[in-house]
Protein 1
Amino acid sequence: MISLSDLRQFKTQGRKFSCLTCYDASMAKGMEVAEIDTILIGDSLGMTIQGHDSTLPVTVADMAYHTAAVRRANQHAFILCDLPFMSYATLNDALVNAKTVMQAGAQMVKIEGGAWLAETVQVLTRNGIPVCVHLGLTPQSVHVFGGYKLQAKTREAADQLIADCKAVVEAGAAILLLECVPAQMGKEIAELFPHVPVIGIGAGADTDGQVLVVQDMLGLTFGKVARFVRNFMTEQTGETAIVDAFKAYHLAVQDKSFPSKEHTFQVEL
Ligand code: KIV
């Protein structure tokens, strides 16, 4: 089973790692066969599984239920689990809710925000719970942003993002996840922290890992699809097509052919 130390080693070696969201046992087994390195039990399940229009209705019980299903079926990947909307608003809530998802099988929790999470990161880490901080476009704040939009588009906003990353890394964040930011930011932030793996989604080709929502990369998202999504199903056929799409994704991340320029945001900062 891949550990946090393995991910740090991958970073040191320049070996890119793959991550997909996953919510159920069948997909988790397919990802095990395809040797996907890390799995995120994302609160995107509010949309992909539950049919809501945002991640806000998702509960800690939902996250624990899906995490347990995935862990039972996959003994290979490092598993991160989102703490959902408002479940880490106080230190006590963060501890109680992180305990629930860790006991369900997660190896790390992911929380969304910036420098203001420093104390939460420190307290969770001290209690044996590794933390990934998700920055840039943070879907739990969609109503603050007024939509799902590219973040850190100006030098000032980019510098603020860097300051937020520094604050949470100093507090003990073990992984950063950057969503929907210019490719230059993914590169700058991954280079800034030699021992902290940085996962990107719409953050360019230079982050240490890449993540996609599984339904997006299998072509199961109807309506508008984000620029950073590539459909890995289109060239696959036959009984193992889904597993082959996972394998193609894993290889494309490793050989750096995904994401290509068409899947990234190029902004001069
Ligand atoms: O919930 C989720 O799927 C996520 C990814 C978009 C990174 O946070």
Note: The chain has a mean pLDDT of 97.
Protein 2
Amino acid sequence: MDYSIARRRMVAQHVVARGITDKKIISVMEEVPRHLFVEEALQGQAYTDYALPIGEKQTISQPFIVAAMTEALTLQQDDRVLEVGTGSGYQAAILSRLVSHVFSVERIVSLARRARRILDSIHYSNVHIHVSDGSNGWAEQAPFDAIIVTAGAPEVPQNYLDQLTIGGRLVIPVGNGNSQVLKRIIRTADQTFSEEDLLDCRFVPLIGEHGWSEKGC
Ligand code: SAM
């Protein structure tokens, strides 16, 4: 089935109409085949503006949130980007069309393998996926020009701040288990950071040493 018309409609209604203006992000979202990142039975819903289940009680984020978080990262083509929470691989796929290297960490092995398979099938080869507790960041690959966290954290883990370049941007949902505020933090100098609240959001929890415990938020 050809989903390109549905994809363009999704971008017009849920991305552009809601205020996303970055032309590169708009064109990448018109290009990346989101339906491949959800299971076959849900492919008909892939171009609605909803988060959808991807197994293991996790979700692929809604298109508007993917676009808004990506825009907040203010990416340059040669940036190295860390994503925490690979999930389906869709956000990583969007990032991979905008920058040279995407480093993505996922704690659930089956999701990391599934994302790898999908990304390989469409030859998106500049996404490096690592299975581990992403609440620690990815020290071996740091520093990063941008870090995007796609799970809700109780507070901002210090590791993320330490792993940013000067000028680096961190976009992260912070709050409780039911709702969070999407924050953008910029490392303006070695020990100086600016912080702003972007919008209210609702993510599954960041589970790990510097996130929530597995028992609950
Ligand atoms: N970015 C994903 C996408 O495009 O499909 C959506 C991510 S989903 C909302 C959140 C993901 O974060 C889940 O796959 C979950 O397993 C993962 N996660 C939660 N805590 C984590 C941690 N400490 N390290 C790595 N991944 C984590």
Note: Strands lie at 52-55, 58-60, 80-84, 101-106, 127-131, 144-149, 164-175, 180-189, 192-201.
